[in-house]
Write a structure and sequence with these properties.
The termini are close together. The chain is built from 3 helices and 4 strands, in the order βαβαββα. The chain has a 4-stranded mixed beta sheet, sandwiched between helices. It has about 80 residues and is of the alpha+beta class.
Length: about 80
């Protein structure tokens, strides 16, 4: 199990919601960070990913941009 999972998201993003639903279905605890309301977190997300689009998923330091099940599963398996 990963020790820390962060999902940088916005409330209106369908891929963000799909990512969070996917993690919940797998019983993975995560921090949901709304970058539309937290400019510091938005800057942190861009620093980590080099991207402004959401979702950005940080699984124990592995950064995944977008809802990519294969990469999410691989990162969770390594954690």
């Amino acid at each position: 199990m990963p020790s820390r999972v962060i999902v940088y998201s916005t409330p209106t993003c369908p891929w963000c919601n799909a990512t969070k639903r996917y993690l919940r279905e797998r019983h993975i605890n995560f921090y949901d960070v709304d970058v539309s309301r937290d400019s510091r977190a938005a800057r942190e997300m861009v620093y980590k990913s080099g991207q402004q689009g959401v979702p950005v998923i940080d699984i124990d330091g592995t950064i995944i941009v977008g809802f990519d099940r294969r990469r999410i599963d691989a990162a969770l398996a390594r954690a």
